Amino acid sequence: MRLWARCRRATTTLPAGCAAAFALALLVGGNAVPLPALTLGGSASVQLSQFIPVLVAAVLAFCLDTRLPAAEASGIRKVRRLDVALVLGVIVFLAGAGALAAHSLDEPFTHPLWTLGRNTACATGLLLLVRPWLRQAAVMVPVAMVFGVVLFGFRRPTDPYPWGFVLEPVTSPLGASACAVIAAAGVATHVLAAKKEEL
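RE: above sequence
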């Protein structure tokens, strides 16, 4: 267990990355920047916090890539279960910390802190889904998703299309369900890919 935690940087890099993401989300708050939106024929105001889950997914990918393949394949501990617990722990931590912080600040449900965990689940799920094929380049898929949503996800300046569900507030059933499905699919893909490697 200690070797796995040290190998995955679960006590150093990962906590630092989560703390930095949370602090960044707290710092930028609801600040937005105008970015091109092709479906609007102009620009849309996009919250800077939309890019933070991509950073968390990149840190998670880095930690999951620090492996000892021979030791993990021959060990008796279920390393993949520990990896899944690590991923889910990050998502739950950011969701809980974001909700608590937003609640303590008396912020409405539209504040980006409310959706930090949900959107991290989506970004991480996408990364894990394509990681068996794209390897280290898989981190670019969540980046592409965010920019794709910004460019093509708006039908009106404050109304995203269904595929722009990461732009929805935390109260949106579509946003919650879509992110949960993507995260579950990503975790399942990660586990199945690891089992194939061990055969």
